[in-house]
Amino acid sequence: MSSLAMQPARASGAFSIGGDLPVMRLGYGAMRITGPGVWGEPRDRGEAVRVLRRAVELGVTFIDTADSYGPEVSERLIREALHPYPDDVVIATKAGLMRPGPGAWEVNGRPEYLKAQADKSLQRLGLQRIELFQLHRIDPEVPLADQIGALDDLRAAGKVGRIGLSEVTVAEIQAARTITSIATAQNRYNIADREYERVLQYCERDAIGLIPWFPMATGGLASQRGPLQRVAKAHNATPAQLALAWLLHRSPVVLPIPGTSTVAHLEENVRAALIELAPEHIRQIEGAIT
Questions:
Q1: Which residue among 69, 189, 196, 202 is the active-site one?
Q2: Span 3-218+252-260: which CATH code?
Q3: Which of 79, 247, 270, 273 is the 20 to 30 Å CA partner of 211?
């Protein structure tokens, strides 16, 4: 059996975060290994651990999480499943959202809070340094310079390797870059929702990684007579797999992080990296979303 058949995520190709941290482009988002409403323990803890271990077996080297997933649950499960981490596996996490209850999220960008959360994430993940630490949301009540400055202080202290942002505009990335270097932006972006197309274009121009969350959304494109169904049939694939394959084709800076709580669904998602879209299929898909 070929190496790509055993580790299909490696077919997605590599991207160097910040120019010096290589990861396979098809990663794994660890939000869904928590309980309902991204709150509490998973219904099947054993399966959550198996998902994380299987992701690495399949060639995934980039795992994205946050202190707010659970809260804390996702980070603890990642350590339980994967520590000590393989040398090529990068665990990225985020801070800046608090969790008052299931399905509830509150922004907190106070510097002292961000720094304290980074220390807690380091402990929960069992890391000496978080290679990619992301501001989960910009807090409108706190000066941006204070929020980004806190992350830069963490980098100067050796606790953080690179800094990322989440759900930001081009103007916000530019403003943050006047304070420090920015390695990634994590925005909602998928085949059915390209509100942040300008952010992708900006990231591509400056070699900033774009991490699309909710990457498998297909909207009406996956209807029985939609273009995704037709192309999926030609590839013996699902519309969701085609949505991931399209993202990987869309730009070399795109790092999709599909999440799931089952091994079977994980294996299906990762096989999307093996799909090679012919020019006519790309035209069919993009003609329907233009």
A1: 69
A2: 3.20.20.100
A3: 79
